[in-house]
Backbone:
């Protein structure tokens, strides 16, 4: 569990003081993955660096597994650092060392015996699916493989918390998938609490239980990803759900429909059965005018624009709203566009 309370951090800037973190409060439950997203300069890396004890905050507290990190000094600080694994931004492996050699590095620094080191390195390379690359040098590995080695290295000292700063930037979607699979295993199999800083909503879609949106050093949105889907005005929902072409279906079937609305459905039951059931119950014609299906983690999620035609169209929409569908009325006309 990571708990951050009222964290502030300033830097001197050319135009005055930069408030990189301006009262950030956030908690990440044990064995979950939390994504930190937000525009460039929002303070994401500074937050990760403060939690990793690489940066000293100006004020506020950071608690990991019940220990307040901000007040630690000397040996206690070094011990606490070991309980926090860090996957830094960019290429961070030593070029002159093999994959196994890079993973072994923190174990050597901690004085672990050669035999115990070898056993641990084998375990870690197996965890990240790179047993066959133990003797390869970073230049002989793909970008995704290098990132997986960096994850294995970060886990060497069995940390309870892992911080990953942009672990998939500059990777193609397929390679991104292999890195995300590894991070998901780290949470599921080792029970590690993961905080991942990212620009990439695919990371949030694939592995995050929670997400926090930072802007100008403040958390402007935070919660479970699936819960935020139903929050009106959520900043991130639009980028997680299937797109709807705003002009699609406004002519033709939509123009004929008695009611046009956007529905968000979460979970197997909702996605599969709810719309046909509403149509049957209220004897209305239901047309899908746009949108589609996706997955957030293991959960199917849909966003559709629907058109309902029939005397009881309004009642059918109200029934959907009462049965786990989040409803937003769609305009039936866009100003300036003839129906
Ligand atoms: N060491 C530093 N010295 C001076 N200013 C800094 C320092 N580190 C960060 N900043 C400033 O603090 C603010 C937050 O930076 P930070 O790198 O945390 O943002 P970010 O959200 O991670 O951005 P990006 O997505 O571009 O990496 C920015 O205005 C940045 O210029």
Residues:
């Amino acid at each position: 569990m990571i708990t951050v309370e009222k964290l502030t951090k300033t830097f001197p800037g050319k135009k005055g003081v930069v408030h990189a973190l301006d009262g950030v409060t956030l908690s990440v439950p044990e064995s979950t993955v939390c994504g930190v997203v937000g525009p460039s300069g929002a303070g994401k890396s500074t937050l990760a660096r403060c939690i990793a004890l690489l940066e000293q905050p100006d004020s506020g507290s950071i608690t990991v597994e019940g220990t307040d990190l901000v007040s630690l000094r000397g040996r206690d600080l070094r011990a606490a650092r070991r309980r926090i694994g860090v996957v830094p931004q960019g290429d961070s492996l030593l070029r002159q060392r093999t994959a196994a050699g890079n993973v072994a590095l923190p174990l050597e620094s901690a004085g672990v015996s050669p035999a115990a080191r070898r056993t641990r390195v084998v375990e870690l390379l197996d965890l990240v699916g790179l047993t066959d690359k133990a003797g390869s040098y970073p230049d002989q590995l793909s970008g995704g493989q290098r990132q997986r080695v960096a994850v294995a290295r970060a886990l060497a000292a069995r940390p309870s918390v892992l911080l990953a700063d942009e672990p998939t930037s500059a990777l193609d979607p397929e390679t991104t998938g292999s890195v995300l699979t590894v991070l998901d295993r780290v949470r599921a199999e080792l029970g590690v609490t993961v905080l991942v800083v990212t620009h990439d909503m695919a990371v949030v879609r694939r592995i995050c239980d929670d997400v926090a949106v930072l802007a100008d050093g403040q958390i402007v949105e935070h919660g479970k990803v699936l819960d935020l889907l139903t929050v009106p005005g959520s900043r991130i929902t639009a980028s997680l759900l299937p797109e709807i072409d705003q002009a699609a279906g406004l002519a033709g079937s939509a123009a004929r429909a008695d009611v046009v609305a956007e529905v968000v459905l979460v979970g197997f039951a909702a996605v599969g059965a709810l719309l046909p059931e509403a149509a049957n119950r209220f004897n209305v014609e239901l047309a899908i005018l746009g949108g589609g299906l996706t997955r957030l983690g293991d959960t199917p999620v849909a966003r559709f624009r629907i058109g309902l035609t029939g005397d009881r169209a309004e009642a059918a929409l109200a029934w959907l709203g009462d049965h786990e569908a989040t409803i937003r009325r769609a305009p039936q006309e866009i100003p300036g566009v003839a129906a």
